[in-house]
Amino acid sequence: MNFTSDFRDPAAAQRLLSAIAASCDRLGATREKPIHIMEICGGHTHSIFRYGLDKLVHEGVEFIHGPGCPVCVLPMSRVDECVEIAERPGVIFCTFGDAMRVPGTKRSLMQAKASGADVRMVYSPLDALVLARKNPDREVVFFGLGFETTTPSTAFAIQAAAREGLKNFSIFCNHITVPEPIKALLDDPDMLLDGFIGPGHVSMVIGIHPYDFIAADYGKPIAVAGFEPLDLLQSVLMVLRQIETGEARVENQYARVVPEHGNPACLAAMADVYERRPSFEWRGLGEIDASGLRIRPAYAAFDAEEKFGIGYATGRRQVAEPEGCACGSVMTGKIKPTACPQFGRGCTPDMPLGALMVSSEGACAAYWQYAGARVAAE
Predict the structure, then answer these.
(1) CA 335, 286, 203, 120 torsion: positive or negative?
(2) pTM (predicted TM-score)
(3) Would you place residue 346 in the very low, low, confident or very high pLDDT band (cuts 50, 70, 90)?
(4) More exposed terminus of the chain, fewer Cβ within 10 Å: N or C?
(5) What is the helix, strand, coil percentage profile of the chain, to 5?
């Protein structure tokens, strides 16, 4: 199978689109009364708009963009804490690129770098380990963020630092988990959700069973999906067919990549290094119980919160959204990016108010990148 063409085959896409339309007709779904399907992953949001799937599917399907961008869901206070660490003397602060421009209340990491802080973009926590080895007189801090997709690599880096006895390496841990915010959304009486497209990359690590509660407790179907257009169309059809038959279960459309029970090596490293936080703050959702990870006491020497006395280690403050910014509502799927009064006006990729406009997985970035001025004018 050719993965660069077979999953983009127009004839196969047309067959899936026809099947989706027939299913919508049988369900009586219309533009006025659509089937609401939430894609949880920000990568899926970008694929949907890159390939125009929102325009190709039957008008009775409405995509709801969920909190699947790990950079976007971080509250501004955590960005402020990153900047605080980065601006300390002797610190080399390492981060993935899409977190560089996310604004805090005063500045972003990119602006802190421009003002003299030693902030460096890396591609892996292992890059930060290399810097720690080469700079024994500097404190190297890696901004550990992301869902279960990136959590194992940070765990492996901490294990390596512990084996080597590195004293100048630490992680500012902002790793979060997918199932808990989904539950929070399902418990929200204002949310209209009929089914879910489950995250492919996250599921590579944790498998499909952590989503069992969605079907068992809430009666909602979910299909874990890949990222090509045919993956997403097939997943939509799988969800619709479950709704048609009155079923609710977890299906694995991405079985070529996602193992049912996840990746044992990754899960073991995560269990060794992390434990659940009692709660963690999400942008737009507030504090959610057991939704974040922290570094276990056995690895406390590599915990930047403990080392620098910030964040949940010492108590923290919540920060309100900038005036007129609707990042929280967009991120939780309550409104579309174009419904934000600042979209394309007070908030653009050059001058962002929120992370959703600059993160590579942000919904606002997807709208802007693939529709640009057209959606700003709507």
Answers:
(1) positive
(2) 0.92
(3) confident
(4) N
(5) 45, 15, 40
